Each structure stands twice: as C-alpha cells, then as structure tokens.
Amino acid sequence: MKRLTFTFDNGPCPGATDRLLDFLAERRIKATFFVIGHLLADPDRRRLADRAKAEGHWIGNHTFSHATPLGVDGSPERVRHEIGDAQCQLGALSHPAKFFRPNGGGELGPHVLSGAAIDYLKEHRFTLVTWNSVPGDWKEPHEAWFARALADLDKDPWTVLVLHDEHIAQMTDLLERFCDELERRTIEIVQDFPAACVPIDRGRPGEGLSRLEPANAVR
Ligand SMILES: [Zn+2]
C-alpha cells in the first residue's frame, strides 16, 4: 500500500495553525509541524505548538530564523544558533528523535546544509528529515498546489508532503478534497518518515546523505 506523510512548515501561525489543527482532528490525521524557533518566544504561537503536541502531532525544528540556508552560510557559529538555539526554544515540545528540517526554498541539495551543519546534526544526534513533494502552496495561484501534489503521488511509494500552515489553512476545502483523493487511491496516511527522507537518523548517517554533502565542506 502506498503511503503519505503530512508535514507543515514555518509555523506556528495564529489564525492558521489553529484552523489546520481543527481540520486534522476532524479527519483524525496525525502530522509533523516543523516550527521556526524564534516564533516560539511569542506565547500565542507557543500555545499553538503546545496544542499540536497535545493532540498527537510531532514537533520538529525548522531552524531558529529561517534565513539564508545553512549550505550557503553555514559557519559553526551560525549552525549552533540556527539548529542549537532553535532546539532550546523547542525544549520539551521536541519529538525525542530531535527532528530537524533545513530551509532551502523547496529544493534539496548542498545549499541546505554545510559540512559543519551535518557534523553538528550527527554529533548532537538529530534526525534529519527531508521531503519528496513540495507542491508550492505559497506560490500564486495558491490553489495550484493541489494538482502538483496529486501528480507527485505517482512519483514515490511513500510521499512526504511539505505544506505551510499559513497558506494551507486558507485552503482547507482543497485539503479536504486531497484527503478524499488519498482515500479513493487507497493511499494510507501515516505519521512517520521513509528511510529515503531520513538522511541522518538519531545521529547515524542514512540514505541520501551524500547528495546533501557539500563538495568543499566548511568544517
Ligand atoms: Zn520553511
């Protein structure tokens, strides 16, 4: 049976994450929210992350500031800030496997992580979680994510879909139709990740790490 994992990035966003959580509860779907560390300093946003965790979703680290990708500017100091300080912000919200997802405009490649970042993730036993479907819900026209996500379902036996709280929460009608389509195609919605999207598993190198490794590592 084919599978699909929902992930929601760049939150928490008041007015969006709450709507999305209502939707997921109604459909009995469990997902992972990759949150931006500095946003958690805002009590309203932290409350949303707390609610997500309480409702059975997993919370992952999506950098402290979501600024320049770590493969472009990834000195050891910046790595400690973007990964380590974000992890401190997450604190008890974090899944025990310490999920980390880098930012990089939806593309996977050496621009997402420096050598120092890969070393840091291994040393501090993070689990690096990537993706294989980024249908671009932030791009106009926003609704176009739907057709792209459906097309992506044919690519892999297990899809890890990246959507964004802020945008997808405005399109729960389409999300509803997407879930109906998954049912129609007997694609199972699961919460965990395929090995192909876990290049580092609790510090151990796994599948696909080599294509993220910089040719000239900054160490
Ligand atoms: Zn992001």
From TrEMBL:
One matching Pfam family: Polysacc_deac_1
Domain of life: Bacteria
Stretches assigned to the NodB homology domain: 2-190
SUPFAM superfamilies: Glycoside hydrolase/deacetylase
GO molecular function (one): hydrolase activity, acting on carbon-nitrogen (but not peptide) bonds
UniProt signal peptide: none
GO annotation, biological process: carbohydrate metabolic process
Family that this chain belongs to: Belongs to the polysaccharide deacetylase family.
Reported function: Is involved in generating a small heat-stable compound (Nod), an acylated oligomer of N-acetylglucosamine, that stimulates mitosis in various plant protoplasts.
The protein's name: Chitooligosaccharide deacetylase
